[in-house]
Design goal:
alpha/beta; 9 helices; binds NADP nicotinamide-adenine-dinucleotide phosphate; Rossmann fold
Length: about 280
């Protein structure tokens, strides 16, 4: 099937990887369904697609919400009549120590990264089956392979995404449906601010090469895609020298702890400055 004949749903298309994939698809002219909660940010992606004359459908919705998931499917079928590719990209990260992590944050991580992804996939498989096949691309994380403790719950959700993909791949292959998992390393997106590690000191890669790799993947499914490529070597190295895993995870954990501490200080300074300004105004 050519890209032009495909209907592709991308969740989390209002920023970062999802937005970059949507824009990287422009030259291939598929039918695109872009989904996210923030209408202003999704509009920015939509405007780019509109300028390029892409046939697209923007849907404001929260993937955690069952009604919104139904809306994504119903509106896509109404508009384009089929679903060929589902890119389960919507996701959040939260850096926190497990003993300090509030239950609401744990729920948010599990519901967004795991439950929503499973439920949307589960609803779309019968549609792809009826249509003669399809491709499900699940965005996991390198942390699924190299978990890091200030990201324990996040790493667990992304490991769940990988295992879920590995399991259903066998179940759905007889329907002509492929399942690919993408395991990105650190990329420069809004993810870092949401996760609470956005001071800019941690290593981060530019998102466009990753989005181009995902565009290629759409046509050529692959079980696991680790990006950037250097991280494949890292995994190989860890297999040869297992103690390296502990050294690397602890180094990353310390970097993240420093980022979080620095963000807390910046936030405190900002609050103090605000207080000072209010005091000056009231005197
Ligand atoms: N950046 C990295 O370093 C990195 C590394 C490994 C894996 N990943 C994974 O890559 C995926 C994309 O992240 P990103 O780096 O591009 O971060 P991002 O810039 O924060 O993008 C996340 C996207 O998900 C959407 N989203 C979040 N919760 C949602 C919900 N409940 N319903 C609908 N949409 C929702 C956000 O849109 P709204 O807020 O508008 O809803 C946004 O468009 C995530 O699954 C993330 O875990 C990222």
């Amino acid at each position: 099937m050519t890209y032009q004949n495909m209907t592709i749903i991308i969740t989390g298309a209002s920023s970062g990887i999802g937005k970059a994939v949507s824009l990287a698809l422009i030259p291939y002219k598929p039918k695109l369904v872009i989904v996210a909660r923030r209408s202003d940010k999704l509009r920015e992606t939509a405007e780019e697609l509109d300028k390029a004359n892409i046939d697209f459908l923007p849907i404001i919705g929260d993937v955690r919400n069952a009604e919104d998931r139904n809306k994504i499917i119903d509106l896509t079928l109404q508009e384009f009549g089929q679903i060929d590719v589902l890119i389960n990209n919507a996701g959040i990260g939260k850096a926190n120590l497990i003993v300090e992590q509030p239950e609401e944050e744990i729920d948010e991580l599990l519901e967004t990264n795991v439950k929503a992804l499973i439920m949307l996939t589960r609803k779309i498989i019968p549609i792809m089956k009826k249509g003669g096949g399809g491709h499900i691309i699940n965005i996991s994380s390198f942390f699924a392979l190299l978990p890091v403790y200030p990201f324990a719950v996040y790493s667990a959700t992304k490991a769940a995404v990988k295992i879920f993909s590995d399991c259903i791949r066998e179940e759905v292959k007889n329907y002509g449906i492929s399942v690919s998992t993408v395991l990105p390393g650190p990329y420069d997106t809004e993810f870092n601010a949401v996760a609470g590690i956005a001071t800019g000191r941690c290593l981060k890669y530019e998102v466009n090469p990753l989005s181009k790799r995902i565009v290629k993947l759409i046509k050529k499914p692959k079980k696991n895609v680790i990006q950037p490529q250097i991280f494949v070597l890292l995994i190989k190295l860890i297999r040869i020298i297992p103690p390296l895993k502990g050294v690397i995870t602890n180094t990353i954990a310390k970097m993240i702890a420093r980022e979080r501490a620095s963000m807390k200080i910046t936030e405190l300074r900002r609050k103090n400055k605000e207080k000072e300004e209010i005091t000056t105004l009231t005197h």
